[in-house]
Design brief:
By secondary structure, this protein is α/β, with parallel strands linked by helices. It has a single domain, classed as NADP-dependent oxidoreductase domain (TIM Barrel). Helices cover about 40% and strands about 15% of the residues. The strands form two sheets. An eight-stranded parallel β-barrel has the order 1-2-3-4-7-8-9-10, surrounded by five helices.
C-alpha cells in the first residue's frame, strides 16, 4: 500500500459530511497521486463513510480498480457467544454499503483491555472467538486480511500483535505522543504505547499510523473545518492540551524549512521505521493536496526527528 493512506473517518469528515462531488474529486485525485489505501469503518457516520466511499469507487470504475479498502467492526462481550455470526453480519452490511464483494482488510475496532469489561475485550477473547470469526470471514472470501486497532492496554495489545493471528495494527503515533515509536516518551497522564511499532515490525505485522495529527491539534489552529468531526478520545488524549503543546513545536517549522506544523507532523510519522502507511483524514480537497505534496518530500531526516523528540522532552 501507499505510504500515505486516505482516512475516511469523522475527524477529517470529508467522506462523512462532505459534498458528493468534492468527495469524488478528492478520491480521484488521491488515486491519480498514487494513494492506494482507503480506510473506513462501519461506525464512521453510522455507515455514511462506507456508503460515500462505495459510491465514489463505483463511479470511478476502472480508475479505482486497484485500490485497497479496509474497514472495521466493533464487537462487545455480548457478541462472543456467536462471534463468527456477529462478524459475518457486520462485514456483509459493510460490503453492501461499499458495493463490494470483499475488502482487503477487516479490522477489530474495539479496545483491547488488560481484562474484559464493559468497553473492552481481553486479549484472550480477541485471540479466541474474535480471531476465529475473522478466520471464518477470510475463509468465506469476504476479507483478505485481518487486523486490530491497537489503542487499548499496551501489554494486552502487544500479546495480540505477537500471536501471529493478525496481519495489521492501527497504532496511535504522532509528534505529541511518540511512545509507540519510542517507549517511555509519554508525558504524565498520557498513554504509553510502549514501542508497539517495533514489536509489530519484529513480527511482520503491518503498522497503519492513526492520529498522526493528534485529531487535528498538530495543525496548531483554533478553528476547525466545518466538515471536521469532534475529536475522539483515545486513551490519555486531550485536545486542548494537545493544541497548546503543538504550538511549542511550531518554532521548529521555520528552522527546518517546512511549510507548516502539519507538514512536520506528517513527515515525522513517515520517518518511523516499521510504519507501513500513515492515515490522514481530510476535510477538504486542499488538505489532500498539501498532504500529497508533503509526503512526496519523504520522511523527516533523522536529525529533524531528534529535534522534535528533544522539544517533547
Amino acid at each position: 500500500m501507499s505510504a500515505l493512506g486516505f482516512g475516511c473517518g469523522a475527524i477529517g469528515g470529508l467522506m462523512v459530511k462532505g459534498d458528493p462531488a468534492e468527495q469524488r474529486r478528492a478520491v480521484a485525485r488521491a488515486i491519480e497521486a498514487g494513494i492506494t489505501y482507503f480506510d473506513t469503518a462501519a461506525s464512521y457516520g453510522d455507515g455514511r463513510s462506507e456508503e460515500s466511499l462505495g459510491r465514489v469507487l463505483a463511479e470511478l470504475g476502472a480508475t479505482a480498480r486497484d485500490v485497497i479498502v479496509g474497514t472495521k467492526f466493533r464487537a462487545g462481550s455480548e457478541d462472543l457467544s456467536d462471534a463468527p455470526g456477529a462478524i459475518r453480519r457486520s462485514i456483509e452490511d459493510s460490503l453492501h454499503r461499499l458495493r463490494r464483494d470483499r475488502v482487503h482488510l477487516l479490522q477489530l475496532h474495539s479496545r483491547i483491555g488488560a481484562a474484559a469489561d464493559g468497553g473492552s475485550l481481553s486479549a484472550e477473547q480477541v485471540l479466541g472467538p474474535v480471531a476465529d470469526g475473522l478466520a471464518a470471514v477470510r475463509e468465506a472470501g469476504l476479507a483478505e486480511h485481518a487486523g486490530i486497532t491497537a489503542t487499548g492496554d499496551t501489554e494486552a495489545t502487544r500479546h495480540v500483535i505477537e500471536s501471529g493471528r493478525i496481519k495489521t495494527a492501527q497504532v496511535y503515533f504522532n509528534a505529541l505522543n511518540p511512545s509507540a515509536g519510542w517507549a517511555g516518551r509519554a508525558e504524565a497522564g498520557e498513554h504509553d504505547f510502549g514501542g508497539l511499532i517495533d514489536t509489530a515490525a519484529q513480527r511482520g505485522v503491518g503498522v497503519l499510523v492513526i492520529r498522526p495529527l493528534a485529531a487535528g491539534a498538530l495543525a496548531a489552529q483554533e478553528t476547525r473545518h466545518a466538515n471536521a468531526g469532534r475529536p475522539g478520545g483515545v486513551v490519555g488524549e486531550d485536545y486542548r492540551r494537545d493544541l497548546d503543546r503543538a504550538r511549542a513545536l511550531s518554532s521548529l517549522v521555520g528552522e527546518l524549512g517546512l511549510e507548516s506544523p502539519v507538514e512536520l507532523a506528517l513527515r515525522f510519522a513517515l520517518a518511523k521505521p516499521g510504519v507501513s502507511a500513515v492515515l490522514v483524514g481530510f476535510s477538504e480537497a486542499a488538505q489532500l493536496e498539501d498532504a500529497i505534496r508533503w509526503s512526496e518530500r519523504g520522511p523527516l531526516p533523522d536529525d529533524a526527528v531528534q529535534r522534535v523528540l528533544a522539544v517533547r522532552r
